[in-house]
């Protein structure tokens, strides 16, 4: 009879099965919080789901409620923003003027710097935007991003990194320059690396860094039908702490007029033993500004590049960054940093379009 009872033990009562469950759960938790390219998103407030993007609010809605505190010396820390609405109306039908943007953002100070006038911000974010000959994009970007960040009660500054000369564009190197110059100005909590042609459509998509992992914010772009292009994608709008950025040695400096630097930095993150936090698709909505250049850009976003990051990342990045600072000037809506980043190397014809761009 005793033998029969042993044979009738359920799987749940079996010690080996219980041990298997414990090990499986431990591995799952380890992957979730420490694994490479994990998808985790943390906020300090519950997100409504689903979000109805057919019902949107103007990005300036209720922004006038943020007025200066009567006693600035005794201001309290900001709590959850009371004016977040979720989906925002974004359109590019009318090009806003600089005067209009300035008038609608009265608390933005010289250099595109803003600190909430009614409370003490809990986060300091440097928004770094590589730029070359995209003036129309920039006007739309500034019109939407300034009120977007103010809605979230963030202490922020917008840095425009302008590449001088007529040589091929090097977005990755400009981002490295932006990080170095921004960190000279303040001890920023978060480095928000932002393409100038992407506009956020949801103010629940908070522009602050995660303490543990680099974060992907632009997970659902309209030109990609609000879907994620491929599992290792880490571009468009991303957020890293200064510690994250230095741990991966920043971006590569050798990507001239080519795509693939986003895949390179994703590989660097994996090599450094970190994962990637990704904003849920229903929150990470962005619209891409299209002045006739979006089609080619979208095609490049659909496929990962072939790289040799493991061989190059230690020597190509922040530790090898060289540039000449031509000017650093504060305008009302942003800091303009103009740099000479040198000339692109001349490659032999057979090497120009290789997958390895490092």
From TrEMBL:
<dbReference type="InterPro" id="IPR027791">
    <property type="entry name" value="Galactosyl_T_C"/>
</dbReference>
<keyword id="KW-0812">Transmembrane</keyword>
<dbReference type="InterPro" id="IPR029044">
    <property type="entry name" value="Nucleotide-diphossugar_trans"/>
</dbReference>
<dbReference type="InterPro" id="IPR027995">
    <property type="entry name" value="Galactosyl_T_N"/>
</dbReference>
<dbReference type="Pfam" id="PF13733">
    <property type="entry name" value="Glyco_transf_7N"/>
</dbReference>
<comment type="function">
    <text>Responsible for the synthesis of complex-type N-linked oligosaccharides in many glycoproteins as well as the carbohydrate moieties of glycolipids.</text>
</comment>
<comment type="similarity">
    <text>Belongs to the glycosyltransferase 7 family.</text>
</comment>
<comment type="pathway">
    <text>Protein modification; protein glycosylation.</text>
</comment>
<dbReference type="Pfam" id="PF02709">
    <property type="entry name" value="Glyco_transf_7C"/>
</dbReference>
<protein>
    <recommendedName>
        <fullName>Beta-1,4-galactosyltransferase</fullName>
        <ecNumber>2.4.1.-</ecNumber>
    </recommendedName>
</protein>
<dbReference type="GO" id="GO:0005975">
    <property type="term" value="P:carbohydrate metabolic process"/>
</dbReference>
<keyword id="KW-0735">Signal-anchor</keyword>
<keyword id="KW-0464">Manganese</keyword>
<keyword id="KW-0333">Golgi apparatus</keyword>
<keyword id="KW-0328">Glycosyltransferase</keyword>
<feature type="transmembrane region" description="Helical">
    <location>
        <begin position="12"/>
        <end position="33"/>
    </location>
</feature>
<dbReference type="GO" id="GO:0046872">
    <property type="term" value="F:metal ion binding"/>
</dbReference>
<keyword id="KW-0808">Transferase</keyword>
<keyword id="KW-1133">Transmembrane helix</keyword>
<feature type="domain" description="Galactosyltransferase N-terminal">
    <location>
        <begin position="80"/>
        <end position="210"/>
    </location>
</feature>
<feature type="domain" description="Galactosyltransferase C-terminal">
    <location>
        <begin position="216"/>
        <end position="289"/>
    </location>
</feature>
<keyword id="KW-0325">Glycoprotein</keyword>
<dbReference type="InterPro" id="IPR003859">
    <property type="entry name" value="Galactosyl_T"/>
</dbReference>
<dbReference type="GO" id="GO:0032580">
    <property type="term" value="C:Golgi cisterna membrane"/>
</dbReference>
<keyword id="KW-0472">Membrane</keyword>
<keyword id="KW-0479">Metal-binding</keyword>
<dbReference type="GO" id="GO:0008378">
    <property type="term" value="F:galactosyltransferase activity"/>
</dbReference>
<dbReference type="GO" id="GO:0000139">
    <property type="term" value="C:Golgi membrane"/>
</dbReference>
């Amino acid at each position: 009879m005793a033998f029969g009872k042993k044979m009738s033990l359920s799987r749940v009562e079996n010690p080996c099965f219980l041990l298997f469950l414990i090990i499986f759960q431990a591995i799952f938790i380890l992957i979730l919080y420490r694994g490479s390219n994990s998808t985790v998103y943390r906020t300090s407030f519950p997100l409504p789901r689903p979000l109805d993007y057919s019902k949107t609010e103007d990005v300036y809605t209720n922004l006038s409620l943020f007025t200066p505190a009567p006693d600035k010396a005794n201001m309290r820390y900001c709590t959850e923003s009371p004016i977040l609405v979720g989906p925002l109306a974004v359109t590019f039908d009318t090009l806003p003027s600089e005067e209009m943007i300035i008038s609608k953002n009265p608390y933005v100070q010289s250099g595109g710097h803003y600190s909430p006038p009614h409370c003490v911000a809990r986060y300091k974010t440097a928004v770094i935007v590589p730029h070359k000959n995209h003036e129309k994009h920039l006007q739309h970007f500034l019109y939407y991003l300034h009120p977007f960040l103010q809605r979230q009660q963030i202490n922020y500054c917008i840095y425009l990194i302008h590449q001088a000369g007529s040589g091929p564009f090097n977005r990755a190197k400009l981002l490295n320059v932006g990080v170095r110059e921004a960190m000279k100005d303040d001890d920023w909590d978060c480095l928000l690396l932002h393409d100038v042609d992407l506009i956020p459509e949801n103010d629940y998509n908070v522009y602050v860094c995660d303490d543990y992992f680099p974060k992907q914010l632009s997970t659902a772009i309209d030109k990609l039908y609000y879907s994620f292009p491929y599992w290792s994608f880490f571009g468009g709008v991303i957020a890293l702490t200064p510690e994250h950025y230095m741990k991966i040695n920043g971006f590569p400096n050798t990507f001239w007029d080519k795509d693939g630097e986003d895949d390179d930095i994703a590989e660097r993150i994996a090599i450094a033993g970190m994962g990637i936090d990704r904003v849920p698709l229903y929150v990470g909505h962005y619209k891409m500004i299209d002045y006739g250049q979006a089609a080619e850009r979208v095609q490049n976003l659909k496929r990962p590049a072939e790289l040799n990051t493991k061989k190059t990342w230690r020597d190509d990045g922040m530790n090898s960054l060289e540039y000449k600072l031509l000017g650093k000037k504060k305008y009302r809506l942003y800091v303009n940093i103009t740099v000479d980043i040198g000339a692109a190397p001349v490659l032999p014809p057979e090497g120009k379009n290789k997958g390895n761009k490092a």
